[in-house]
Amino acid sequence: xxxxxxxxxxxxxxxxxxxxxxxxxxxxxxxxxxxxxxxxxxxxxxxxxxxxxxxxxxxxxxxxxxxxxxxxxxxxxxxxxxxxxxxxxxxxxxxxxxxxxxxxxxxxxxxxxxxxxxxxxxxxxxxxxxxxxxxxxxxxxxxxxxxxxxxxxxxxxxx
Length: 159
What we know:
By secondary structure, this protein is of the alpha/beta class. It is built from four helices and six strands. The chain has a single domain, classed as Nucleotidyltransferase, domain 5 (2-Layer Sandwich), CATH 3.30.420. A six-stranded mixed β-sheet has the order 3-2-1-4-5-6, with helices on both faces.
C-alpha cells in the first residue's frame, strides 16, 4: 500500500466527437468540470489543448476513462480510449492511468436530468460531467484501497 497521494489530477472522458475534462482540487477531495475539447481526428489540436490544461493545472496525474462493456469486455470505444491515452502519454511528462468508467456517461445524463437540464441543453457539458464522475470515482477508490487507481499507460519506446 502506498497511501493516498495529494495533488491536482486531471480527468478525461474520451468521446468520438468531444473530450470532457475535469480536475481535482490540490487535496484530491473534489472533482470539478473544466471544459469540453473538440476531438481532432486529423491532427493533434486536442492533445495540444489537453497538454496546456495539464501544464496549467500542474497536474501530477491524468485519469482517462476506460469504457468497457457491462460484462467487462473490450469494445471499439475501449480501443479508441486506450489509443488516445497512449498518444497522450507519449506527448506529456505526466503519468496517465486508465480507469474503468462503465456507466459514467449514463450517470452524467442522469445527474443532469435530475438537476432539470434537458438532453439537448446538456450536450455541451455532459462530457465534462462524465469526466468529473470518472475522476471522483478514481480518487474515492484510491482513498479506499490506498493504491493508485486503474492501470498505468506506458508510452511507446522511442526508436
